[in-house]
Write a structure and sequence with these properties.
Helix content is 48%, strand content 11%. It is α/β, with parallel strands linked by helices. It has an 8-stranded mixed β-sheet. Strands 9-11-10 form a 3-stranded antiparallel β-sheet. Strand 6, helix 11 and strand 7 form a beta-alpha-beta unit. Helix 2 (24-34) packs across helix 4, helix 7 (146-158) packs across helix 8 and helix 9 packs across helix 10. The longest helix has 19 residues, at 50-68. Residues 89-128 have low confidence and may be disordered.
Length: 458
């Protein structure tokens, strides 16, 4: 049983008892107690008093004691909760193996009163399915994405959408959203497999991995392997997540162009939408796959969810920042981007002792080293045509029309239109719709380009 499972388990109990999910401090108390840390350590991390942490802990132990019919306290939290966890999953037909995010699922018709039947099912591979979340992130905080979570839940559980893309800039919260969905609904799937393409492998190796995870020996040819995979997707309710999909696309080209060695992925994605089955594949990416675009969404079971910045200051609570009345200004300045807010919060705490008002008084959009690193990777990866468009937009302090932008560039209509479209697929420019269609950069990216991309200017 790992800490992510612990927090999820306790969150479920608290929600069933109170109708509310764990807040940040409660989650930190659960995590810290599981890791055998002191209330002092937890209090310092959350920027609250030790007494407050103690009070939160006492309330949680009392609630958990009532729910699990055990006398739970800080000193016996681990051992008692593990017993309750095992009992809970026995009752819900889930069996945990070694506490490593791997689960075996048994059909609801299984009679647990017959130990012999249990043992038979354990040894019957055809009745076993697998949850492999080894590479999935641990989620402690989840802020302000309830609407997006409802949308994702509706697409998967109600509309049976086969292929879904979660899209947006790095650090915007794509992975967190998907993991939160899994934490809430993992019992509804017989198979869950999370894989990262940060260091991508060939489609052949990926399918081998998926089949091995489902305890099937891969056959010789790629066609036979695909048939094996789609038999699983058809016969079992599966959820497969591929993270960092943008890494299978070609650098220095327009968005969504596959690298030659990963071109087969396009075949897989098309098959997922064109073949009838009961499963779902989620692609998490910083740029859109061409397969995710359709003239008639009703004809194809595909959906795309594009994430933008957060608008609620709750994300800044328990971070150690001061001057709460200025937090909204900080949110607006950094477009509600979680990663940007995290890195600038660290700087404000170190340099301004957490005083947001003093930081804002500098009257400058500070680009931290982490932001520089992220934008540098992005800018160096896009095509030369996109770089030209970005540099032209960076000279403008307000949104500009397509006509105005084209006049400033020496590009053919084909390159100009394809470049604009590609930049939108990468979420690097914003299209503003009104009486006239205008294009703009985010203020943070504009500041980066102006200050750190001088060598690219012509």
């Amino acid at each position: 049983m790992n800490v992510n499972e612990v927090v999820t388990f306790v969150d479920k109990i608290v929600f069933e008892k109170t109708g509310k999910h764990l807040d940040d401090v409660q989650a930190a108390v659960v995590q810290g107690t599981w890791e055998r840390r002191t209330y002092d350590d937890i209090a310092q991390e959350c920027n609250v008093t030790k007494n407050h942490v103690g009070d939160i802990g006492a309330e949680l132990w009392q609630l958990l004691s009532q729910a699990l019919n055990e006398d739970i306290k800080k000193t016996n939290f681990r051992s008692t909760l593990e017993r309750g966890y095992i009992k809970s999953f026995e009752n819900s037909n889930i069996y945990n193996i070694n506490g490593n995010n791997n689960y075996f699922y048994y059909p609801q018709t299984l009679n647990h009163s017959h130990q012999k039947t249990q043992e038979t099912n354990i040894n019957t591979q055809s009745k076993l399915s697998h949850h492999d979340l080894t590479l999935a992130p641990q989620i402690i905080k989840f802020h302000n994405r309830e609407k997006e979570l409802q949308t994702l839940t509706h697409w998967i559980l109600n509309q049976t959408t086969n292929l879904i893309s979660i899209l947006g800039l790095s650090g915007i919260g794509k992975t967190t959203l998907v993991k939160r969905f899994i934490d809430l609904h993992q019992q509804k799937f017989e198979v869950i497999i999370w894989r990262s393409l940060k260091f991508p492998k060939s489609l052949n190796l990926l399918i081998n991995d998926l089949l091995n995870t489902c305890q099937q020996e891969p056959k010789a040819t790629i066609n036979d392997k695909l048939k094996q995979l789609f038999d699983i997707l058809t016969n079992k309710k599966c959820l497969i997540i591929l993270d960092d999909v943008q890494n299978i696309f070609t650098p220095h080209q327009f968005a969504g162009k596959y690298q030659p060695e990963y071109q087969d992925y396009q075949t897989l994605f098309k098959m997922i939408t064109e073949t009838q089955h009961q499963s779902h594949v989620i692609l998490i990416s910083q740029e859109q796959c061409p397969e995710m675009e359709s003239l008639d969404e009703e004809l194809y079971p595909i959906k795309s969810l594009e994430l933008s910045g957060l608008e609620n200051i709750d994300i800044l609570k328990n971070t150690g920042l001061k001057d709460e009345d200025t937090w909204l200004n900080l949110m607006i300045l950094y477009t509600g981007h979680p990663l940007f807010l995290k890195t600038i919060t660290i700087s404000i705490k170190k340099i301004f002792n957490g005083k947001v008002s003093e930081f804002l008084a500098e009257n400058e959009l500070v680009i931290t080293q982490e932001m520089q690193s992220l934008f540098s990777q992005i800018f160096n990866k896009i095509s030369p045509i996109e770089q030209q468009i970005i540099l032209a937009l960076s000279k403008c302090n307000q949104p500009v029309s397509r006509e105005y932008l084209k006049i400033t560039l020496e590009l053919s209509s084909t390159n100009f239109i394809n470049g604009l479209e590609s930049l939108q697929k990468r979420y690097l420019i914003q299209k503003i719709t009104g009486d006239n269609i205008l294009f703009d950069l985010s203020p943070i990216f504009r500041e980066y380009v102006r200050n750190f991309c001088q060598d690219y200017r012509t």
